[in-house]
Amino acid sequence: MYRIGKEEIDAVARVIESKELFKVNGGKLQETANFEAELRQKMGCDYAVLMTSGKAALISALVGLGVGPGDEVIVPGYTYIATAMAVIAVGAIPVIAEVDETLTLDPASVEANLSPHTKAVIPVHIQGFPSNMNALKKLSEKHGFAILEDACQADGGSYNGRRLGTIGDAGALSFNHFKIITSGEGGAVLTSRRDVFERAFIYHDSSAIAYFGNQLDNVSVEPFCGNEYRTCEITAAILREQLKKMDGILADLRSRKKAIMDALSGEFSFRPSNDIEGDCGVTVAFAFPTEEEARRFATAPGVHGVLPIDTGKHVYTHWTPILEKRGAHHPLLDPFKMPVNAGLNHNYSKDMCPKTLEILSTTVYVGINPDWTEEQLAAKIEACRKAK
């Protein structure tokens, strides 16, 4: 969380005073509907659905894309475990691929892992680093798989001038406490495909959309049993204020990241970017020849660095339920035990992505605060310089 205050407090008060906290109401506020409209406009897509979390958005989007048992979905070995768990939630099998020097999904590894069962690929814009969407789109056009962008750590970022989450067939955002904009918890599906929107919309709130208001007007997909990822008007009211601040937060993050990289460019190496202008700027990724050098730098006074190899559930080697193939609470619901998935690619091992592990072990993240003063920024630069 970066910036939150009086505007959000007033927004919450507005909803409480209206006594209309449920998203479908006959009042004037309509916070959820307004936020979704504002998000569509800001991101440049045709449809946006607010829901409870980024994982809920990933699951709903996969349902929207028709992914299910018998399908493989390629995910990077460096992403939060929720990305892979979302694939399991729809009955499909996650295929784990390498990341490249940009710390995002390696298109060459995607191509190497394609099979006749590949239904979708999930590039993850981890730490706000844009994935190589041009290369992935070319592969998608050639091989016919869908692209679901996991932009949960990249709210508002862009690639070649387009907002992350709107370039593929669908995208997922997250608004939890640790994201660029936040409502404590929350997420959204973005898409410009009507079929994906309708299926994702039904799935995210199948127990209520047919019974409150006119939500199913102009929806042609027959309702089916899904989940309940519905949010309330308080969440939407907070996010309407956060959305107004998003571009300002990104501008300040980017300017401070650029200042650090410009100041240290002759002294350090950095991980390359697929689009440095669209990068969200939340993290400077320093590159080192060895893990020993990376750790020495990360622990130097004032640096406060983190090696991504140490980030637990963000690294596939720590995805214990996935690696041990415990995909559900009941064996008949477990994708790893479904006969239709028996021949799919779930031959996991902890050493299956050596390139990913090497890159994560020789990278140091230094986080950026958009509210650093010039003095604080200078102190961070000097701390990094002294740690060389």
The side-by-side strand order for the widest beta sheet comes to: 1-9-8-5-4-2-3
Strand/helix succession: HHEHEHEHEHEEEEEHHEEHHHEH
- Helix and strand content put the structural class at alpha/beta
Query: What value does the Rg take, in angstroms?
Result: 21 Å
Q: What percentage of the residues does DSSP assign to strands (E)?
A: 5-15%
Topology:
Blueprint (H helix, E strand, L loop, with lengths): L5 H13 L12 H13 L3 E5 L2 H11 L7 E5 L4 H9 L3 E5 L9 H7 L4 E4 L11 H11 L2 E5 L7 E2 L2 E2 L6 E5 L12 E5 L2 H11 L28 H32 L4 E2 L12 E5 L3 H8 L21 H4 L30 H8 L1 E5 L6 H13 L2
Parallel strand pairs: 2-3, 2-4, 4-5, 5-8
Antiparallel strand pairs: 1-9, 6-7, 8-9, 10-11, 11-12
Structural summary, described in words:
- The protein is of the alpha/beta class and about 400 residues long.
- It has a domain at about 5-245: Aspartate Aminotransferase, domain 2.
- The chain is about 35% helix and about 15% strand.
- The protein has twelve helices and twelve strands.
- It has helices at about 5-20, 30-45, 55-65, 80-90, 105-115, 135-145, 195-205, 235-265, 290-300, 320-325, 355-360, 375-385; strands at about 45-50, 70-75, 95, 120, 145-150, 160, 160-165, 170-175, 185-190, 270, 285, 365.
- The strands form three sheets. Strands 1-9-8-5-4-2-3 form a seven-stranded mixed beta sheet, sandwiched between helices. Strands 10-11-12 form a three-stranded antiparallel beta sheet. Strands 6-7 form a two-stranded antiparallel sheet.
- Helix 3 packs across helix 7 (about 195-205) and helix 8 (about 235-265) packs across helix 12.
- The chain is globular, with a radius of gyration of 21 Å.
- The chain starts with 5 loop residues before the first helix and ends with a helix.
- The mean pLDDT is about 95.
